[in-house]
Amino acid sequence: MTYETVEASVRGGEPVELYRFVLGQTVYTYTSTEEEVEFGDETYLPTTISRSSINQNDEINRSGVTITVPRDLDIADLYRVYAPAGILAVTVFRLHPTEDVYATVWAGRVLSCAWESVKAKLECESIFSSKKRMGLWRNYQATCPHVLFDSGCRLNRFDYRVSGAIGAVNSGSLNISAAGGFADGYFAGGFVQIPTAEGLYDTRFITSHTGAVVDIPYPFAGAEVGVAVDLYPGCKHTTEDCDTRYSNILNYGGFPFIPPKSPFGGTLVF
Fold first, then answer.
1. Which domains are delineated in the chain?
2. What is the pLDDT of residues 22-34, one digit of tens each?
3. What's the number of CA atoms in the CB half-sphere (13 Å) around residue 88?
4. pTM of structure
5. I need a surface site. Which of 118, 198, 222, 231 has the fewest CB within 10 A?
């Protein structure tokens, strides 16, 4: 039988739902049934997991869902202190084990987690939301609108990576000896990364840099003395920084010669 035939059957179907979460190289699999389910060479563990209904409207492909799980489940613990590094993707399957037919009913990613008593609610958006296209975003401005190392900037960030190890950890700063070899402020506006257990990199913005100390807005969950880190410098988005520091003036995205006085300012003589 096909999935559609079994799903429409009054007595023939025995549907169960499977939830597959992926974060980097780590996979979490759960099922809403009382027993383990083998599916796609993976074992789905039983737990009290459920989801909200998928809205039937003209935006069905972009409809979000809320997945409710026990508050001590592994995927909820990922949000216990901070949101995890990288994207936590989720796919929901509807399976009829007796007929070995299934359908993918929803796919997307987890945006946030909220705790309510003994439960945790994962707010998720559809995978189709990523297909939304940004409108016009560049302004007529003197400073460069490009993000350092993005496709507009065209610099290779790995050419500027500085690797080192954490020497000391404070609540809002890290002591990294490799940073001491650069002028104060060199890494300000840049970012620092440390590897995670999922094979990803957790990232923090660098608010200031003095000697071997880099300040970050909030601490890393896994930062310890001796942990390897990668440092990347920042950019002031000015022609001077772009030219003298990065020799990248040909890719400068701003308009540095904008007249300082607007012709629409109301004065009689421009």
1. 9-129 (2.30.110), 161-232 (2.40.10.170)
2. 998 899 999 998 8
3. 21
4. 0.70
5. 118
